Amino acid sequence: MRTYSFFPAVIVIGLSFLALFLYDLNHHSDLTIERATSPIQHLANARQAILDRKFNTSIREMDAAIMDMKIIELSADSTATKFIERAIQDLKFVETEIQNDSISLQDLNHAYFNALNSIAYANLIISEKNLDKGERYEAMRFMNATIKEMVSSLNFAANERDKEREKVVIDDIKDILSKMKDSEYEYRFNYDSINKEVQEMIEISN
Fold first, then answer.
1. Which pLDDT score, from 0 to 100, does residue 17 have?
2. In terms of Cα–Cα distance, which of 204, 135, 149, 136 is closest to 176?
3. Which string of b and e fits 167-204 if b means at least 16 CB within 10 Å?
4. Which stretches of the chain drop beneath a pLDDT of 70?
5. Cα angle at 204 between 198 and 206, to 5 degrees?
6. 87 and 39 Cβ atoms separated by less than 8 Å
7. Which pLDDT value is given to residue 154?
8. For 183, left (φ over 0), alpha (ψ -120 to 50), or beta?
9. Distance of alpha carbon 14 from alpha carbon 36, whole angstroms
10. Reduced to 3 states, what is the DSSP secondary structure of residue 190?
11. What is the per-residue pLDDT for 153?
């Protein structure tokens, strides 16, 4: 008869893991600004590790960036998720190149440019959601994160045309952020136009 006690135990353990998973999912849905910008550092660490020929470290840091990107996309929208998933595939392709000792600087730059801009777009969407909820300060923080990620991506642009196109978008976002900071009242604007600018920039670069 004791053998059957195994099955209730399995059910209890399974339910416990499910509860932990749901808690973790709900916890991550409240995205912090630190989490929203953490892939920048992981990607920088991965690139430095590649230069130092510490390839295991580079893959570990890249995996950490990918994990954070997946958490970020939970708080964004379907378009941001599409961009992030595409960027993750680019990063995984670079990981394969590292494992095969055939890393291409061009592929690395392309993957980083897409990764940073996909995260930037996701944070812009999250900024919009915060402003819709009346959380102006959080909206500004996530918009500032968008700028930070886009500025970082300039180092990996394929050509001057892509770089100049992105600089224009960055200036537009900075202008909006400046107006939000300077306004004594709740500055309202339509995110659609700036979202479209970032979308088009990402699509053109792929």
1. 45
2. 136
3. eebbeebeebbeebeeeeeebeeebeebbebbbebbee
4. 1-29, 184-189
5. 110
6. no
7. 96
8. beta
9. 31
10. coil
11. 96
For residue 97, give the amino acid letter: E
Burial environment of residue 8 by CB neighbours within 10 A (0 to 12, 13 to 18, 19 or more): exposed
- Amino acid 21 reads F
Q: How many CB atoms lie within 10 A of CB 105?
A: 9
Q: Give tens-digit pLDDT for 93-103.
A: 999 999 999 99
- Check residue 109 and give its pLDDT: 96
CA 17 to CA 11: how far, in whole Å?
Answer: 10
| Distance from C-alpha of 59 to C-alpha of 42, rounded to nearest angstrom | 10
SS (H, E, C) 129-160: HHHHCCCHHHHHHHHHHHHHHHHHHHHHCCCH
Q: What is the pTM of this model?
A: 0.83
